[in-house]
Amino acid sequence: MSTRGNRRANQGILFVLSGPSGAGKGTVCTALMRRELGLHLSISVTTRTPRNGEVDGVNYFFRDKAEFERMIEADELLEWAKVYDNYYGTPKDFVASRLAMGYDVFLEIDIQGAMQVKRRFADGVFLFLVPPSPTELQARILGRGSETEETFQLRFGAAHQELQQMREYDYVIVNDEVEHACNRIESIIEAEHCSVKRNLHLLEHW
Fold it and tell me: Among 165, 172, 42, 59, which Cα is nearest to 111's?
């Protein structure tokens, strides 16, 4: 499939990818970005301390707690959460400015965050990534090598519950192989740009 230019003539589209633990969201997202489709990966804002090599505005927008809480109060975030005493969120302005310039924005996030985004930005396209089978999901969780029997059962049980959220999404992508999953997402991106609701402006020329 051919790659596209960096921007569209009309409004860009927000694509939100999420799914259960073990689905391979990060791996698929990284592979998709390598395809040079002109997608802009959304950058999160966080209150945690930068790690070695991380750059503000590239890896994250690093802000202090007071500033983050001001952003919450000012409704400047599409979604946010507090994880182990640190805040994480998606800034509205970053996403909106790039969409307005015609760029597609890609957001890889957990299910709870995706549902927050859906309530605030219903025009987004929501993609649900799933492993090909329960057996494969078990293998992926165990393959991390850091799970005890107790933590495995907790993760597997949580993933089973998260799978029930699939009904809230627009598309489901089976991640049997990373390249196949990326092909499916690329096809969805192209189809969304060809949808009637996003091309009504063409009627102005007829």
Answer: 165
